[in-house]
Automatic annotation (TrEMBL):
<dbReference type="GO" id="GO:0005524">
    <property type="term" value="F:ATP binding"/>
</dbReference>
<dbReference type="GO" id="GO:0019136">
    <property type="term" value="F:deoxynucleoside kinase activity"/>
</dbReference>
<feature type="binding site">
    <location>
        <begin position="150"/>
        <end position="154"/>
    </location>
    <ligand>
        <name>ATP</name>
    </ligand>
</feature>
<protein>
    <recommendedName>
        <fullName>Deoxynucleoside kinase domain-containing protein</fullName>
    </recommendedName>
</protein>
<feature type="active site" description="Proton acceptor">
    <location>
        <position position="91"/>
    </location>
</feature>
<dbReference type="Pfam" id="PF01712">
    <property type="entry name" value="dNK"/>
</dbReference>
<comment type="similarity">
    <text>Belongs to the DCK/DGK family.</text>
</comment>
<dbReference type="InterPro" id="IPR027417">
    <property type="entry name" value="P-loop_NTPase"/>
</dbReference>
<dbReference type="InterPro" id="IPR031314">
    <property type="entry name" value="DNK_dom"/>
</dbReference>
<feature type="domain" description="Deoxynucleoside kinase">
    <location>
        <begin position="12"/>
        <end position="217"/>
    </location>
</feature>
<dbReference type="InterPro" id="IPR002624">
    <property type="entry name" value="DCK/DGK"/>
</dbReference>
<keyword id="KW-0547">Nucleotide-binding</keyword>
<dbReference type="InterPro" id="IPR050566">
    <property type="entry name" value="Deoxyribonucleoside_kinase"/>
</dbReference>
<dbReference type="GO" id="GO:0005739">
    <property type="term" value="C:mitochondrion"/>
</dbReference>
<feature type="binding site">
    <location>
        <begin position="15"/>
        <end position="23"/>
    </location>
    <ligand>
        <name>ATP</name>
    </ligand>
</feature>
<keyword id="KW-0067">ATP-binding</keyword>
Length: 237
């Protein structure tokens, strides 16, 4: 049992809004022995019949704290789900809520000092009492301009309220958090794999196979070879 547990990995895919996370996750979902957990957007859209995501985008100053509090809660729930496959992959994390989104909202004054301090206190308590287990962070580094172009081309209604300055502010926070190894803010010094999110992997089978191979190779280097899951990449064309 202990040997089996040591062969399990928990991976987080991080990046700006519309950076290409969902596309990468779709490709990863085709890798054998992999379970993928997307952001729980449907839960954010339906809280006893109310669309909190839409309210947040339409009035960030009023709903930013409430929304990010809900994001943190739902992300922690996913972090602590039982793992059923050797490779557990989730879209974003509790950490990007604090280090990127809440930080950006605080700096642009959508979140007040009191709200930020309350959120930060709760976050630190969770990290101390129920810290998530993460073996690898994948950072899709994508330019704000590319993110905005993709954002306007997809059909999510709530995204239409987002503007380039907010995307750029998020980009700065992501770079401060994950872009420079010396600045990694992480409770366990988790490895970070940087991938080029500007590349269009949607229709390029060779490119997305290469990205998946990079991820598997990175995981193989995290633990000794005899404890490594040998996942075979069988992505259908």
């Amino acid at each position: 049992m202990k040997q089996l547990e040591q062969n399990k990995y928990r991976v987080v895919v991080e990046g700006n809004i519309a950076c290409g996370k969902s596309t990468l996750l779709r490709h990863l979902s085709k890798v054998p022995f992999t379970e993928v957990h997307y952001e729980p957007i449907d839960r954010w859209r339906n809280i006893e019949g109310e669309n909190l995501l839409a309210r947040y985008y339409s009035n960030a100053t009023r709903y930013a704290y409430l929304f990010q509090q809900n994001v943190l809660q739902t992300m922690m729930e996913i972090h602590h789900l039982p793992q059923t496959e050797p490779l557990f992959v989730m879209e974003r994390s509790a950490f990007s809520s604090r280090y990127c989104f809440v930080k950006t909202l605080y700096e642009n004054r959508s979140i007040e000092d009191l709200e930020f301090n309350c959120f930060d206190r709760w976050f630190k308590w969770l990290m101390r009492e129920r810290p998530p287990s993460v073996d690898l962070i994948i950072y899709l580094r994508t330019s704000p301009e590319t993110c905005l172009q993709r954002l306007y081309s997809r059909s999510r209604e709530e995204d239409k309220a987002l503007l380039l300055p907010f995307i750029k502010s998020l980009d700065v926070c992501y770079e401060q958090w994950l872009g420079t190894p010396d600045n990694h803010i992480w409770h366990n010094n988790t490895p970070v794999l940087l991938l080029d999110g500007n590349l269009d992997v949607g229709s390029d089978a060779a490119l997305h196979n290469k990205m998946v191979s990079q991820i598997i190779q990175k995981l193989e280097n995290i633990t000794p070879p005899e404890k490594v899951m040998k996942a075979q990449i069988e992505v259908s064309n």
